Amino acid sequence: MAVTDEAIEKIKAMIVSGELGPGDRLPPEKELAERLGLSRSSMREAVKALEVIRVLDVRRGDGTYVTSLEPHLLLEAISFVIDMHDDDSLLELFAVRRMLESQATGLAASNATAEAAEALQAEIAAVDPATVSIDDLVAHDIRFHRDIVRMTGNGYLASLIESLSSQTIRARVWRGLTESGAVERTLSEHRAIAEAIAQHDSALATSLATAHIAGVERWLRQAASA
Q1: HSE-up (13 A, CA, CB side) for residue 181
Q2: Which residue of 52, 183, 201, 221 has the lowest C-beta tally within 10 Å?
Q3: Is the overall model pTM greater than 0.70, yes or no?
């Protein structure tokens, strides 16, 4: 188990045991790291990860608090990303998203106006891979895929895919935090898809979108076997 994952598991255990409850303030970083037998750097990364998925609330100059969710929802939120490889439904969700979104991307390539294609490329160009945060990268990812499905001109299909996509946000955040090169890979794949759409190459756009979403599925399966 990675050091950061170990730190998250230990914070999770404190919540499960009732030692920490919703709204409670975590002990100071140094004290908590010593109590759990972890380095301060791994503790800091764990807190950052749990803040991104809104399990912890870091209040600058005040401290770090467990979010004021209902206890069962809080535990569900943690388990969703830490134990998600135990839930086959998440993989099934990505499989459905891959099938629908790949075809939607091909349709977008057929229907995209020059203005829409340029706007999609501008969305990618606005992201600086050297400085972008994981939450900003995921926000970009959401906008990118939303704009593509809206190019299809099929409002029902766009709403369906956006609903599916919204349920995979935590997994995408977790991949960005834990997988080496995730930022560069995501942007590179987005550029290739946007270029295929700009060229109205439906077959290529469909194939690239399929591979793009399948990459997250592959990562989830690898996480399950780690």
Answers
A1: 5
A2: 221
A3: no
pLDDT tens digits for range 104-134: 999 999 999 999 999 999 999 999 988 888 7
- The CA-atom distances, in angstroms, between 50 and each of 76, 89, 90, 159, 165 are 13, 22, 19, 29, 21
| CATH 3.40.50.80 for domain 85-225 | no
Q: Is 156 exposed, middle or buried (CB count within 10 Å of its CB: 0-12, 13-18, 19+)?
A: exposed
The gap between the terminal CA atoms of the chain, to the nearest Å, is: 8
In the 8-state DSSP scheme, what is residue 29?
Answer: H
Mode of pairing for the β-strands spanning 63-66 and 56-59? antiparallel
- Tell which CATH classification among 1.10.630.10, 1.20.140.10, 1.10.10.10, 1.20.1250.20 matches the domain 3-81: 1.10.10.10
Identify the CA nearest to 137 among candidates 92, 145, 149, 46.
Answer: 145
CA distances from 37 to 32, 44, 47, 181 (A): 8, 13, 15, 29
